[in-house]
Design a protein that fits this description.
Helix content is 49%, strand content 8%. By secondary structure, the protein is an alpha+beta fold. It has 2 domains: 3-100, Glutathione S-transferase Yfyf (Class Pi), Chain A, domain 2 (Up-down Bundle), CATH 1.20.1050.130; 106-204, Glutathione S-transferase Yfyf (Class Pi), Chain A, domain 2. Strands 2-1-3-4 form a 4-stranded mixed beta sheet, covered by helices on one side. Helix 2 packs across helix 9 and helix 9 (170-185) packs across helix 10 (194-204). The chain is globular and about 45 Å long. Bound molecules: glutathione. Glutathione binds at residues 26-27, 64, 73-74, 86-88.
Length: 236
């Protein structure tokens, strides 16, 4: 654990950090994974999404106006009096505070910026598939084109362990989790892109990842909200 986090979260102040989202993995799991990796104590809170066809979100919609968070969204993160929205901003804050998984040089920073943009595009594309009303066809097309869609990732991972080099960065937590969604959607689909597959296996094999995934805090499903065509079940 970094010295900053040690200072912020001694046992007596457990609960100083809260992470708020829903009761599904969504875009929040990489944040949980990083906190778990760093052994930073945090409280997890969630909003409730009602059943379809309404998918009522009124608790969140009401709170959103009054939380006093710039660009309020889910997930959001609090640390003492500090409140932060945006999943990448939260990850970057944790990475920066812990002095792990964060760029140290201009060159590393540029590499992270680029990898973050590419990862965001990829994450959005996979979410679009999961929410597509014609899910099966969308998923089959996506999987059929995977080696093209992930061509840039396959090329950079030919010569490095992680997205930006041989050091794991915050962006790896997101990319690896989206790969995990895909492996759940269509087991074995990463086999056509061996460098990406090796990367995924490498991430999943990290002792900190194994520890979290074996813990009772982790669940494989639901990956998406109950509104999704794929990954919304079982509803917790
Ligand atoms: N760019 C935002 C996207 C956040 C987002 O779309 N959150 C969804 C759940 S995955 C949500 O329901 N947000 C609540 C809202 O839009 O009010 C991030 O990366 O955090």
């Amino acid at each position: 654990m970094s010295s900053l986090f040690r200072k912020l979260t001694p046992k007596s102040q457990k609960g100083t950090i809260t992470l708020t989202y829903f009761k599904f993995r969504g875009i929040c799991l990489p944040i949980k994974m990083m906190l778990e990796w760093l052994e930073v104590p945090y409280d997890y809170q969630h909003y409730y999404m009602g059943e379809g066809p309404k998918f009522d979100l009124s608790d969140w919609v009401t709170d959103k106006q009054t939380l006093g968070i710039d660009f309020a969204n889910l997930p959001f993160y609090t640390e003492g009096g500090m409140r932060l929205a945006e999943s990448f901003a939260i990850l970057r804050h944790i990475a920066r505070s812990s002095r792990m998984f964060y760029p140290k040089t201009d060159e590393e920073e540029r590499a992270c910026d680029v990898a973050q943009g590419a990862t965001q595009d990829f994450r959005t594309a996979v979410i679009d598939v999961a929410y597509n009303s014609n899910y099966r066809e969308a998923k089959d097309n996506f999987v059929a084109n995977l080696s093209t869609t992930l061509g840039n990732f396959e090329r950079v991972l030919a010569s490095r362990q992680w997205l930006t080099g041989n050091k794991m960065m915050y962006v790896d937590f997101v990319f690896a989790d989206v790969l995990d969604w895909l492996e759940l959607m269509e087991p074995g689909c990463l086999d056509v892109i061996p460098n990406v597959k090796l990367y995924y296996v490498r991430f999943e094999g990290q002792p900190q990842v194994v520890r979290y995934k074996r813990s009772d805090k982790y669940y494989k499903f639901p990956v998406m909200s109950r509104k999704a065509a794929w990954g919304g079940e079982p509803v917790l």
